[in-house]
Amino acid sequence: MDHIDRVLLELLQQDATQSYAVLSRAVGLSAGAAHERVRKLRSRGVIRRTVAEVDPATVGGGVLAYVTVDSTAWMGDSSEGFAAIPEILEAHITAGSASVLVKVRTATTEQLQDVLRRIYAIDGVSGTQATVVLETFFERAVSPRATEQP
To answer: How far is 19 from 93, CA to CA, in rounded Å?
Structure first.
């Protein structure tokens, strides 16, 4: 992946609806060449998907919590149990005091409590600790240029 690919990725992260003509002007290529580069980035799995970013609070996801999950067993085989809970947006196996870290969005704290009950029902879960987010300063996408060498 070269500098042009990284700039294309950055531009698409800012607005994935930009035309290939606009992208091509930004990187100094023809629209066809920019389109081909983006196609290759998709086929190699660099671009995993294109989505619309929705404001969570406007669609009933105003409560954000990070939940650490303690366990009595290895949780690496429990991904389906976590994935079955639609309010869980992310689930990660972690090193340290907790086995799993999940990101949860609900409309109310009562719904968060229900999610915690469902997490407890997953085999091997022995405890949870929820941290409710009061305010988000910012969220940042992965920068395709973060590891770029000058």
So the answer is: 38
